Each structure stands twice: as C-alpha cells, then as structure tokens.
Amino acid sequence: MVHSITKDTVLCMSLASRPSNIGTRFHNFLYSELGLDFVYKAFTTTDLAAAIGGVRALGIRGCGISMPYKEACIQHVDSMDDSADAIQSVNTIVNSDGHLRAYNTDYIAISSLLAERAVPVDSTFAVLGSGGMSKAIVAALRNAGFHSGAVVARNQRTGAALAEQYGYTWRAELGSNRPQVLVNATPIGMSGGPAADDLPVESDVVDQAETVFDVVALPALTPLVRHALAGSKKVITGAAVIALQAVEQFVLYTGVRPSDDQVRRASEFSRS
Questions:
Q1: CB 1: neighbour CB atoms within 10 A?
Q2: What's phi and psi for 189, nearest 5 deg?
C-alpha cells in the first residue's frame, strides 16, 4: 500500500553537505513496515541557523545532522543529551513541542560495535581525522578502556585538542606507527569524493593492523574495507555504524524500537 501523506503526517529530516538516500530509504522503510504516519526527507543547506529554525518553527520531529554541521549546530539547540554534550558533537536533534534537544547516536553505535566485535582494549590504535565523527570514536575508545592510541590529523588545532582531551597523542602523519586498530574517520574512500578509489594509509599499515574500522558508509565496501577483508582482518564498516545509529535515531523520533530482522531488511533496502 502506498503511504498517503496528510496534514497529520510527521516529518523527519536530515541535513548533510552531500545528502544520500541511505537514511531516507532506511527510515521510510521502517515507517511503512511498522505502519507509522511518518515521512523522512534528506536536505542540504547553506544557512544552518535558518534550517534548524525551520525544524522548530514547522514542527519537524527529528533532524539527523551530518558533517560539516555536527558542531556548528550546537548554538542553535536548547539542550544537550549526555551523548552529545560529552563530545560536543551532534548527529541527532529531537523536537518536542518546540524544544530542540541534541544527541549523538554515532557515539552510541560505535560503543556498541566495539563491544560487540570484542576489540581488545589493550590494542594500540590510530584514528585518522579530527572531525565530528572522530570525536565520537575517540570518546568511545576512551570510555571502553583503550589507553594507548593516537589521533592522526593534519589540522594541529583540532587534532591536538582532541587527543589532549582524552589523554592520547597527536600526530600530523602516521609515520612509522603501525597500530593494531586502524580507524578511518576521513572522507577518503567515499563514493563520489575526490579520493573514492584510495586507501587512507599505505597498504602495509592495513596489512599490519589486526582490526580495521572505516566509518565511510557509502560504499559499504570501501577500498580500505576490501583490503582489510582480503587480509582476513577483523572489520567494522561504516555501513554497520550508520545502520545502528539510525536505529537509535528512529527510536528517539518515534518511540518504537524495530526488531533486529526489520533493521536488517531496512539496512539492505537502504543500499539496494
């Protein structure tokens, strides 16, 4: 049955510099599956303040936030959940009668995946990048008990500050460092980007790692993930992160938690 949109249909949305269909298809699949009178639409903007003001003014229930808006949006919300406040980075805004509360379900998803995949906390690690997703990753690593690692970022201001905040080291380049856990939180390998076919590090860095975590979600099999799988590494994909964080967003927006099977089928549909 085709969902008929009415004046009572609840709107949820996302803001990204380069919107994709993944979240749109994921959420709308579950709305249909569960018979919920919701609809989800992806947007981009050049006026973040006005866009978030529109979320409040138009009664839009939820708004997913992607780079480069994860930190810039903070000044436009009314309150911060602990998941967002702890890392000063937002990926979800929930509108309750005009009150905008910010969350970070990326952090929740990453923490869950590190535990689920049993990544040893005594492993050395390197996180490539120092943006909003990097904050979620580094915070999750610290809270999970990882004690020896580095933030690798060319931007000394953001990279050094992130490393210092959580008690790790900062490097402008990976150099001779060969971490046991390699995390890519840069856009390298992203479909449609200028480095879509590239690895974020030299291939021998991947070869010497034990666990490879690529937060790039599109494609699911990035060059880094493919190389890691070929080497029989333990792998965590951006596709897994985006599906799990989207589930937490879905629950925040609707108050309904879908079954594991529904989530699996929604995730498959979002990439079909």
A1: 5
A2: 100, -5
Domain ranges of the chain: 10-104+242-270, 108-240
Question: What H or E segment, with its residue span, contains residue 213?
Answer: strand 211-214
* List 70, 135, 233, 234, catalytic entry: 70
CATH number, span 10-104+242-270: 3.40.50.10860
CA torsion sign for 255, 259, 265, 267 is positive
Catalytic residue flag (residue 7): no
Q: Is 207 helix (H, G, I), strand (E, B) or coil?
A: helix
Whether 10-104+242-270 and 108-240 share one fold: the answer is yes
Nearest to 88 by CA among 165, 12, 23: 165
The span from the CA of 236 to the CA of 113, in Å, is 8
Output the pTM of the full model. Answer: 0.82
Query: Domain 108-240's class?
Result: alpha beta
Cα 96 to Cα 6: distance, rounded to the nearest angstrom = 20
Task: Per-residue pLDDT tens, the chain, 272 aa: give them.
Answer: 456 899 999 999 999 998 989 899 999 999 999 999 999 999 999 999 999 999 999 999 999 999 889 999 999 999 999 899 988 889 999 999 999 999 999 999 999 999 999 999 999 999 999 987 899 999 999 999 999 999 999 999 999 999 999 999 999 999 999 999 999 999 999 998 899 999 999 999 999 999 999 999 889 899 999 999 999 999 999 989 988 999 999 999 999 999 999 999 998 998 88
